[in-house]
Amino acid sequence: MITVALTKGRLFKDFIRYLKNRDLQKYISVLENDSRTLYTEVDNVRFIFAKGPDVPTYVELGAADIGIVGSDILAEDSFNVLNVSQLPFGDCHFSIAGPPDVERFNTVASKYTNIARTFFNEKKQPVQLIHLNGSVELAPLLDLADGIVDIVQTGSTLRDNGLIEYEKILDVHARLIANKRTFYTKEDGIYQFLTEIGVMG
Ligand code: PRP
Predict the structure, then answer these.
(1) Pocket around ligand 1: residues whose beta carbon is below 6 Å from it?
(2) Where in the cell is it found (predicted)?
């Protein structure tokens, strides 16, 4: 049995779309189940559903053997995992965004304050960063911040909240990560699963 950590949300929808394009019905029917159950099994693969930032923690500590996670999570914090490969889905990017009339970003809200800090440090631009856990688009609307550093995929969240992109910061993709020990001790099961879903072999 191998354990695969997934996150429900944007990346999960992309993964399901990817499986549908490859007609991998065996996994689709199990994963698309609407129940609130946090794990499910098919043949020798157990899937667990974690919050995005927790996926690398489960993998690092060996509770999961492999994980599918956005490179945003891996760029924001460091984890002791094997960063195996880029996956062909989950593409989006980080941008600095705000209302249309911002002349200078003095205060910026983000869920990703490490990525934001690196960006402004590289520009040698002093900034006050405010950490929020989501719905960061609210911050400039309420004058809590001049702008946000956030993930943009379709751009509709920004548009719907009257915000525009000022500068792209970083591309984001889905990544395959693995536990440093079980990636080798469970090599056969992991390889079989990855080959089956078409990301290896
Ligand atoms: C992300 C991001 C934006 C949205 C962008 O949020 O923080 O809010 O997706 O997608 P779009 O460009 O297609 O509109 P996520 O769904 O990950 O949840 P969050 O608000 O909790 O961060």
Answers:
(1) 9-10, 111, 134-135, 150-157
(2) Cytoplasm
Q: What is the pLDDT along the chain (201 residues), one digit of tens a residue?
A: 999 999 988 899 999 999 999 999 999 999 987 778 899 999 999 999 999 999 999 999 999 999 999 999 999 999 999 999 999 999 999 999 999 999 999 999 999 999 999 999 999 999 999 999 999 999 999 999 999 999 999 999 999 999 999 999 999 999 999 999 999 999 999 999 999 999 876
Where are the domains positioned within the chain? 2-90+173-196, 92-171
- Report which ligand 1 atom has the smallest distance to the Cα of 160: 14
Question: Could you tell me the CATH superfamily of domain 2-90+173-196?
Answer: Periplasmic binding protein-like II (3.40.190.10)
Whether pTM > 0.85 for this model: the answer is yes
CA distance linking residue 12 with residue 124, whole number of Å = 36
Options 3.40.50.720, 3.60.70.12, 3.40.190.10, 1.10.390.10; CATH for 92-171 is 3.40.190.10
Using left for φ > 0, alpha for ψ between -120 and 50, and beta otherwise, residue 69 falls in beta
